[in-house]
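As a warm-up, study this chain.
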Amino acid sequence: MTQSRAAWYFAWALLAPAVLYIVIIVAWPLIETVRLSFTNASLRRTYDYVGWINYQKIFDRDFLEIILRTFTWTFFSVLLKMVIGTFGAVLLNCAVPGRHVFRLLTMPPWIVPMAIGIFMWGWMYNGQFGMISGLLQRFGFVDGPVAFLAYGHSAYWATIVTDVWIGVPMVTIYFLAAIQSIPRDLYEAAWTDGASRWMRFRRITMPLMAPAVITMSMLSLIATFNSFDIIWILTQGGPSGETTTMIIDTYATAIGSKKYGEGAARAVVICLFLSLFCIAYFRMTRRLAGTDKA
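Now compare it with the structure written out below.
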């Protein structure tokens, strides 16, 4: 009994740092955010509990448009990252001269500090002296300067392109590692049987890459859904709110307007959306893989 109790204490002693970290860094801020979401907290020293009023304000017409915009922005960004990252990993895995140099050249968007990279893209999107507008005019595609960040539709896609540029290197390297872990014997046997490159990619590469694709798409989705720096530095949610996503609206409400209660309610909704999507996503992937026995 003494040895069993000592082992129990020793186990909890080993778990204590992780438990403290979860309680202090994760659990307490989350509980505090939920509590504030039911108040009218602001810059005032005192505040009152207002029930579900903050949540009722969320689901008006404007915020429903923000929710839809967030999901579409995330969908296109993650989709492009997965597609470009997959083809990039396949190309980098090819036995061509100088492939190590090409692998190295994929890293700068990931290595360069995010703020610097975003400012660079903001300069390129500038209509007066930006490189993209200048090239379009030089080759005759447009007649005059194009200010990409001045119009809602173009600003929306400009932020997506910037997010894809920043996120593709990590996806590519991750997928490259997954491809290199596939046994070469499978490819040699398929080649001997006369399978084409497309068939080898479809029947060998993609099925064995599936766990890596699922993991990376989930991580990329969470990061993209909560992406703040790119949109805020480029457009601050403009023009006319066309690039305002849920995380931008939450920041503008809580920090910009000093409505901490309403901002906390928006943060709780974001957390619920991501939690529900993760659960549904993993259940769907298990069913597709035939492993869900529920």
